[in-house]
Give the backbone structure.
Amino acid sequence: MLTLVVFAITSTAICFMDGKDWFYHRLPATIATILALLCWAASVLVHRRPADRRAVLPAAVAGIAFVVFLVAAFQRLEPQVALAVEPEQDTVVKLEHLIRKQKARTYIAFSEWIALGFPVVNNTGVAWASRFDSMWALKGELWRVHFDPVAAKEWPIRHWVAHDFITGCPDIAVVDTREGVVNYVGVLSASDPAFARAWSRYRQIAAFDGLVVYRRGTAGCIDPWVAAEAPPAVDSR
């Protein structure tokens, strides 16, 4: 019991200190806390005395905490249950249908959700127009620049993302607005005027489940001066 309590407290403190706020970072603290609650509840039931009412309030508090953990688990598993029951209503499936309908060949998503990159790319056959599989690296740069300005010069993620977008010129671009924390398009537009000009050639064609889908116009993404400054192609023959 003491080991579980110490582990639960330590892992909870590390979770908050880490500041990443992703569900699997909370798993060690959650599991240790639930096991400690179950261990304590079993001990109370085994050693309880009929006339002892002092354990009623702590048991009630432990029961409430356990219910809170169950509700949180249900909320996280609910999308998977809904997907099993109605697969056609899944956000990824809707996006795949739209990409096929648009006959897109290249695609990118401004999102931390890895599923918008894969399996969408695998299931539709489009080419992913970036060296990054999500915007996690860009979010990491924005987070680190607050206390380490030199990192942005050594790892210019914003420049790399904008460069890949301009040169890749994806047919379809998806902006994930569900997180609501980082406006990736706004950040990239403010950091790179060439990206802002390229993005101005995209128009919205759909919006669903917090995703906004854009389609590139007939014009390309690369400005003439960018093309002139680009390195010459290497002959592989």
Remarks:
- The longest strand covers residues 202-208.
- Residues 56-85 form the longest helix (30 residues).
